[in-house]
Amino acid sequence: EKQQMSNSSSISQFLLLAFADRQELFWLFLGIYLAALLGNGLIITTIACDHHLHTPMYFFLLNLSLLDLGSISSTLPKAMANSLWDNTNISYNGCVVQVFFLFFFLGSEWSLLTIMSYDCDVAICKPLLYRTLLGSRACVHMAAPSWGTGFLNALLHTANTFFLPLCPG
């Protein structure tokens, strides 16, 4: 009886060669990350603290800032660590998690921007019906599916990217 050997490969880490020997990139990444944290943090704090800004437009802007913070936080800290410590790899599981969260936040952002364009359209074209069409309940009912869409998008893309076999066996 012949034993059949499987022809498959496994990956334990990925190499990020673009960041090799680039400690000066740390300062650039740090500046970008701090600017994003400061800008989005100020937007979130201002909207949360000022009751005059509790309108649909600012509700969506608050969500957009949260998503922006998530998307930049899913990639830049690892890039900063790699450039600071001259490390050029990321674990397989770390890459899966990073790709999932990046797709989640960017997919949700894309959906939310579509909803924000509808908000602007209603504000311009139907100003008298604005409060009726976009009450707080309607805003939550529109924002929640954008987060859900981002999650589903991320789940499907990550599963298709990382859980397919490398070689047909």
Automatic annotation (TrEMBL):
UniProt GO MF annotations: G protein-coupled receptor activity; olfactory receptor activity
Transmembrane intervals: 25-45, 57-77, 89-107
Subcellular location(s) of the protein: Cell membrane
Topology relative to the membrane: Multi-pass membrane protein
Main localization category: membrane
Residue ranges annotated for the G-protein coupled receptors family 1 profile domain, each copy included: 39-169
Gene Ontology CC terms, in alphabetical order: plasma membrane
Keywords (A to Z) from UniProt: Cell membrane, G-protein coupled receptor, Membrane, Olfaction, Receptor, Sensory transduction, Transducer, Transmembrane, Transmembrane helix
Keyword Metal-binding: no
Cited Pfam families: 7tm_4
Transmembrane helix among keywords: yes
SUPFAM superfamilies membership: Family A G protein-coupled receptor-like
PANTHER family on file: OLFACTORY RECEPTOR
Protein name: Olfactory receptor 14I1
Organism, as annotated: Calypte anna
Biological classification of the source: Eukaryota, Metazoa, Chordata, Craniata, Vertebrata
